[in-house]
């Protein structure tokens, strides 16, 4: 036994059914070799990677229709990698990244569970230089601005790993930390557009969720239905 419990559920994403292995609840925890602890992942944070969150579903839905032709794409903080799986299903050039010790394992399992080729994966800690990662045309992430210092770390990552003509798309459940990130990307030449989105059935207008789209040097603008319920 791995020390944690999982289950498999079926999610409808972009008009296609995906089978997703996830942790059964937020109480799951297993770190026998203290790997997560050494990375700064506490027992309270450990299980967060292994769940289907509304922001993750929102990003996956956006990636089901977004223009991906000819683009090299990076998903940050992929967790279970819903958006990466949707993009892999579409034949995209996608690299998923996270730093949780089990993110790669769960992503590989879910790729195989859906009959997809393995999604290329890189261990990536924001703020740590990674010269081998290269540059991308589109960088995506869901609910990754959850700490105040993430805006600075992620804007620095965009500076190092986004092409001169590039897009950045983040989903944010309304945590209030997106403004400094937007200012930092504006200083790098990005224009921003924002679509308010319902995070769940209890959400009422004005919706708390946001799909943030940043584009530089004429990159295409995403097309997503405002206020869509996921």
UniProtKB/TrEMBL annotation:
PANTHER family given in the database record: HEPATOCELLULAR CARCINOMA-ASSOCIATED ANTIGEN
UniProt keyword annotations, A-Z: Methyltransferase, Transferase
Protein name: Methyltransferase domain-containing protein
Keyword Membrane: no
BP term (GO), one: methylation
Xref: CDD domains: AdoMet_MTases
SUPFAM superfamilies to which the protein is assigned, alphabetical: S-adenosyl-L-methionine-dependent methyltransferases (SSF53335)
Keyword Transferase belongs to the record: yes
Gene3D superfamilies the record matches: Vaccinia Virus protein VP39
Native species: Luteimonas lutimaris
GO molecular function: methyltransferase activity
């Amino acid at each position: 036994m791995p020390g944690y419990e999982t289950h498999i559920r079926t999610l409808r994403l972009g008009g296609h059914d995906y089978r997703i292995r996830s942790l059964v609840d937020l109480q799951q925890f297993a770190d026998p070799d203290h790997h997560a602890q050494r990375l700064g992942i506490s027992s309270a944070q450990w299980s967060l990677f292994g769940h289907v969150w509304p922001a993750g579903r929102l990003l996956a839905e956006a990636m089901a229709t977004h223009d991906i032709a000819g683009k090299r794409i990076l998903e940050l903080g992929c967790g279970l990698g819903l958006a990466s799986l949707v993009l892999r299903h579409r034949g995209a050039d996608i690299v998923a990244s996270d730093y949780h010790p089990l993110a790669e394992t769960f992503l590989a399992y879910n790729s195989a569970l859906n009959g997809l080729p393995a999604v290329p994966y890189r261990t990536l800690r924001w703020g740590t230089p990674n010269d081998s990662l290269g540059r991308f045309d589109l960088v995506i992430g869901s609910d990754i601005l959850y700490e105040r210092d993430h805006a600075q770390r992620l804007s620095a990552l965009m500076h190092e790993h986004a092409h001169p003509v590039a897009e950045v798309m983040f989903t944010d459940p309304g945590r209030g930390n997106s403004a400094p990130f937007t200012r930092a990307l504006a200083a790098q030449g990005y224009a921003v557009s924002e679509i308010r989105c319902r995070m769940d059935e209890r959400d009422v207008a004005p919706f708390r969720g946001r799909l943030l789209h940043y584009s530089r040097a004429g990159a295409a603008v995403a097309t997503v239905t405002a206020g869509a319920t996921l």
